[in-house]
Amino acid sequence: MGVFHVWSHTRVTNEGYRLDELRRAREALRAERNRLEIEVATLRAPGRLSSLARERLGMAPPAPGAVVAGRAVAVAAGGTGRAVGEESLRPAPAEPAVRRVAQARREAVAFGEAMARHQPE
After folding, report:
1. Which residues of the chain have pLDDT under 50?
2. Strand, coil or helix: what is 44?
3. Which terminus of the chain has a smaller tally of CB atoms within 10 A, N or C?
4. CB 72 within 8 A of CB 83
C-alpha cells in the first residue's frame, strides 16, 4: 500500500510540473501570436503598401482621367494596362513593373526547363 502511495504522489508531482511547463509554453505562444498579429497589421497598412509599390515596383498613382469606370482593361500578357481603345501614347503608370514581372516569369520558366534537362533519370 505504501509503494502505491509513493508512486501516485510522484506521478501527480511530475504531471504538475509538466502542466506548468505546458502553461508557460501556451503563454509564450499567445504572446507570439499577438506579436505576429501586430506585425501583419503593420505590414498591411495602406501607407506602407503604397510606399512599397512606389519604391520597389516602380508603380505610381494613375494620371488624372486615366481611370474610367465601366471600360475593359487589357492587362493580359503583353498588355499595357490602358483601357481598350485608348489612343494615348503616354505609358501606363504600372508598365515598368509589368515588364519586370513578365521578365521574371520568363527567367523562371527558363530556369525550370534548364533544371529539368539536368535531372538524373
Report:
1. 71, 76-77
2. coil
3. C
4. yes
DSSP 3-state assignment of 51? helix
| Cell numbers at 116, concatenated | 529539368
Determine the Cα–Cα distance for residues 68 and 8; give it in Å rounded to an integer. 77
How far, rounded to the nearest angstrom, does the alpha carbon of residue 23 sit from its chain's CA centroid?
31
Cβ 32 vs Cβ 24: under 8 Å: no
Retrieve residue 120's grid coordinates: 538524373
Question: Whole-angstrom Cα distance, residue 57 to residue 80?
Answer: 15
Pairwise CA distance, residues 78 & 28, whole Å? 49
Distances (CA, A) of 46 to 10, 38, 43, 53, 96: 57, 14, 9, 10, 22
Q: Residue 109 corresponds to which cell in the numbers above?
A: 520558366
Give the three-class secondary structure for 6: helix
DSSP string, 81-95: SPBTT----SPPTTH
Nearest to 86 by CA among 70, 99, 74, 104: 74
Query: pLDDT by residue (tens digit) across 90-112?
Result: 555 555 556 666 777 778 887 77
